[in-house]
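Continuing from the previous page of notes. For each protein in this section, the sequence appears first, followed by its C-alpha cells. Read the first protein now.
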Amino acid sequence: MPKYKIADVVVEMVQDYKETAHWYSDYIYNGDEEAAFAIKAPQTDIDYFVEVGKDITPAVAENMVLCNIFNRRLLRYGGSYLHSSALLYEHKVYLFSAGSGVGKSTHTKKWLDRFPQKASVINDDKPSFRIIDGKCIVYGTPFSGGTNLQINTSAELGAIVFIERAEENSLTKLNASQAINLMLSQAPKIFTEKAGEIQLDLYSQILTSYPVYLLKCNMDDSALDVSMGILTS
C-alpha cells in the first residue's frame, strides 16, 4: 500500500479512483517510519454517498469515506477535524465554520483577495487538528471536498469563527457553553461512547486555550472588516 503523512501521522491508504489519488499526491511519504494504520474505503460506503449526495462523483465520495475513517483513527493521536475553511494568516490558522451553503468559503476568499501575500487557505472543508504539547495544531489535508483547495502545511490555531448569515455584521466572543454545541454540530459523527468522550475532551481543551467567535455577517466586503476583529480581541 502507498504511504502518506497526514496530520503528522503516517498511514497506508489505497484509492480506487485516479482522481482521488491525485488529490493525495502532496502527502506521499517515502520515509522509513512505519504506518500507524492502514485504511481503504469500502465500495458500499462510496456507493451510498454517490446515491444520496448531490452531484457527488465516486472519487469525491471515496475521499469523503477516507476522511471519515482517517479522522476516527486520528482520535487515538489526539486529533479530529472541524468542518470549516482553514485560513492561514500570519503564522496562525483561523477556522471559519458553518453549515454547507452558509458562506464560509466565500468569506475566507475575501481574506485572500485583500491579503494575497499574507493569507492562504490550507483546507476548505475538513482540516484536521491535533493537540500536541498543549497546543492545537491545524493541518492541511487532502480531505477538501470537491474543490481540492488545500496545502500540505500546518500551524497553531488562532481562533475558531462560526458564521451565521445576517443583514448586519457583528462579531461576538462566545463562552465555552455557547461554543461547544456549535463545535459538535460541525464535528465528525461518532459511533461509540469512548470515541465521543475523547472527542469532547479534545474540543474542551481547545476551548480552554483558544477564543471562539460568532460572526453574523452578510456577503458584503464590509463583513471582512468586522471579522478582522479576531486578530485583536
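Done with the first. The second protein uses the same format. Note its length before scrolling.
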Amino acid sequence: MAQLWGGRFTKETDKLVYNFNASIAFDQKFYREDIEGSMAHVTMLAKQGILTEQEKDAILLCLKDILAEVESGALEISDAYEDIHSFVEATLIDRLGDVGKKLHTGRSRNDQVALDMRLYTRKEVVETDRLLRELLQTILNIMKDNLDTIMPGFTHLQKAQPITLAHHMGAYFEMFKRDRLRLYDIYQRMNFCPLGSGALAGTTYPLDRAYTAELLDFYGPTQNSMDGVSDRDYLIEFLSACATIMMHLSRFSEEIIIWNSNEYQFVEIDDAYSTGSSIMPQKKNPDIAELVRGKTGRVYGALFSLLTTMKGIPLAYNKDMQEDKELSFDAMDTVKGCIALFRGMLSTMRFRRERMRASANGGFTNATDAADYLVKHGVPFRDAHSIVGRIVLYCIDKKIAIDDMSLAELKEICPAFEEDIYDAISMETCVDKRLTVGAPGREAMEKVIETEEMYLAKVWLDFGEQ
C-alpha cells in the first residue's frame, strides 16, 4: 500500500526492505497510547484555532470509535501498515476523508513515537510499583507471623549467627522498598511531554505544548525539541530498575531453591508452584524460583541491548531507536510476570520452623555469644575468640553442640565459665538481646514492623506529585 510519507518517492519500497523497516508487529502494543496522544493533540489544535471545533469533534469521535473497535476485536490491527501511527491515521482518513488528514498537523512521527513510548513506559512504571507493593505486603505478613521463628543466619553460605525468619525476610523487604523508590525517582524525571517537538526543530504552528502536556497528565513539555525526540534515558533507567528488581528476585529465588533442597528442608513449596519429574516420581521441583532466576538474564539483556543501541547515535532521531521496543516490552512483561508469580509462590509456601530451629542449634551459631560472655567476665576479646574456637573443635570431635557441654568441660577449657553460660548462649537469648536498630531481637523487629505497616498504609507512592 502507499505510505503516508510516499510523496518524495517514485517507486515502491522493496518488500524485504519494507518488512525490515516496519514496526507494526510490536509497536501495536501501544495503540491506546497512540490514540490518546492523538486525541490530546487534536484538542490542543482546536484550542489554538488550527482546527475548527467541528473538525476536532469529528476526529475525536472517530478516534474513540477506532479505540473501542480495536479493544473489542471488531477492528484488527493489520500488518499492511508500517507502524501503529500509520494504521491509526490511515483508518481515520478512510472514515473521515480530508478532515482525517488534518490530524498530523504540527506533528512528526518522531515526536509521536517519543510520546507513545513515554506514555507506555510511564504506565508500566506505575503497574510495576503496584505489584511490588503487593509483594511487600506478602513479605510483611510473613515477618509478622515469624517474629519468634529462629533460624541460622549465613555468611559464605555457612551458618554464622542465629536470627529469625522475620529478620531474614526483612532484608528483602528493604530491597524491594528501594526498588519502589527507584521507580518513583524515574517517574519524576520522565514525566515530561515530548509532543510538539516535531521532527527535531519544533514547528511554525502556534502549538500550546503546555496544554497538551496537561491533557496527558505530564508535569510540562520537554525543554529541547532535539532531546525530546531522541531521549531514551527514561527507558534505560526503567530497564536498569527492572534489572535490579530481577536481581533481588533472583537472590530470593536462590535461597528458596536452597531451602527447598533435601539437605535443608526449611520450606515446602505449594504443589501449585512446583512440578515433578517425568522419570523420578519422588521429585518436587522449585521451577518457578528457577525460572525467575533464569529470566533475570533476559532482563539484563534488554538493558545492555538498549545501552549498546544508544551509545553511538548522533542527534536527533535515527531509525536505530526503533530497536528500543521489542526487548523493552519483553523485559517489562517478564518483570511483572515474575513479581506476580513469585508473590504467589511465597504466599503459599510452608515454613518448617522446627527444622530451621534445629539447624540453628546444630551449627555453632551461638559461638560469638559464648565469646561475648567471656569478654563480659573479664577475658580479652582476642583470647575469648581463641578459647571458643577450641571449644568448637572439641564439640566437633565429640559431635555435640556447645550447649551440650557440661560446666566442668567448659571450665576445663576456661575457668571463667559459670552456670549462667547456658542461658547466655540459648538461641532465644542470642536473638532477643540484639536490640539495636535493624537487629533481629523481638523488640527491635516489632518497631520495624510498625514502621513498615505505616509505609504500606500509603497504597501507592504518589506518582502524581513532582
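What the second structure shows: The CA atoms of residues 33 and 119 lie 6 Å apart. Residues 109-145 form the longest helix (37 residues). We return to this in next week's lecture.
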